[in-house]
Amino acid sequence: MSLSVDIRKSFGDYTLDVAFEAGDETLGFLGASGCGKSLTLRCIAGIETPDEGRIVVNGQVFFDSEARVNLTPQQRKTALLFQNYMLFPNLTVADNIAAGIGREVPRAEREALVSQELERFGLRGFGQRYPAQLSGGQQQRVALARMLAARPGILMLDEPFSALDAHLKGVLEQNLVSLFEAYEGTILYVSHDIDESLRFCDRIAVVDAGRIMEIDSGDGLVNHPQSVAGLKLSGCKNATPARAVGEHCVELPQWGVRVETAEPVPAEVKYLGVRAFYLERAEGPGENCYRMRVDRVSDSRFERTALLAFLERPYADRAAASFDDNEMSYLHQHVFWRVSKHTDEELPREGDELWIRIPPDKVYLVTR
Q: Are the CB atoms for 60 and 236 separated by under 8 Å?
């Protein structure tokens, strides 16, 4: 199984310009709302038509602007699961599952396929019910069963858990495990949740403003992000513009400090990132040690997050701190520090002044 995509589509000021390949794997698309993740899937499915480019699935050309090939959605035989499942309200569960099976398939075989998927997704006994008689979780299972019954050339899922609460989401994720285990081929999975992407995807594509910024394994994205978008989407709370001032030193205009790094600094470095839980208490001055003030604190079940201000900012760029949005200016000049509540040390409190160290081997440097 294989997928090759190289397409462009413009909407006024916005342009989708993506190129990637995938094999027998689950490839995630991670990005903020409106970045082009769903549009990419809709172009592959034939719901949207690119302005130019080429889409090839398992050796079959779905779209080729130069050769003037543009198969209909029905000819492409893809399976795209939307956020709301798109079940037919006037059809029974069994008929919904059968809806994607080609008419050329004999009746006995169609019934066998439906029965097989009912069994796989724990829906035996629900075949004659209608979608309105099902819970949200049961509706999702019907939609997944319909996808597999159609025997598509590619599976695509567009944020299937976005409308679910945390508890139900955890339960229904197991339905996807059944789907992925049963399907051999390319699966595309759209999400804006890094943890969800890590659980399901073999590789993750970071999408930003209509372009793929990087594609890597989940481990690679978390531990070695290569772009500003990847840095932020991987969950790094502290990401700030940086410029090289030495082989192992960067200057951070918004924070107003310099940071020593264990890794050599690329000449074209654009941002530095450090995760909130990597910051350390320090006894006093030293390498990457800064005198800071706790300006805000907030608590979750197991952690306290402190917003820290640098009390000394010798390298601050006053122009960089000039934002229209005062709250954003305030946040960009601060650092997030996350502390476990299960510690013997006293938790930081608003107004505290203390020394904090940024470990040189725990920073990320990205160039795009």
A: no
262-279 pLDDT, tens digit each: 999 999 999 999 999 999
Q: Which of 201, 193, 187 is nearest to 80 (CA)?
A: 187
pLDDT at 323: 45
Task: Give the 3-state secondary structure percentages of the chain, helix then strand then coil, rounded to 5.
Answer: 25, 35, 40
pLDDT band at 168; cut points 50, 70, 90: low
Report residue 194 CA to chain centroid gap: 5
Rounded to whole angstroms, the Cα distance separating 95 from 192 reads 32
Tokens (6 digits) for 290 = 């800064």
Are 248 and 265 spatial neighbours (Cβ–Cβ below 8 Å)?
yes
Work out the mean pLDDT of the chain and round it to a whole number. 90
Strands 203-208 and 26-30: parallel
CA distance 74 to 72: 5
Q: Are the C-beta atoms of 269 and 365 separated by less than 8 Å?
A: yes
Query: Does the pLDDT value for residue 320 go beyond 60?
Result: no
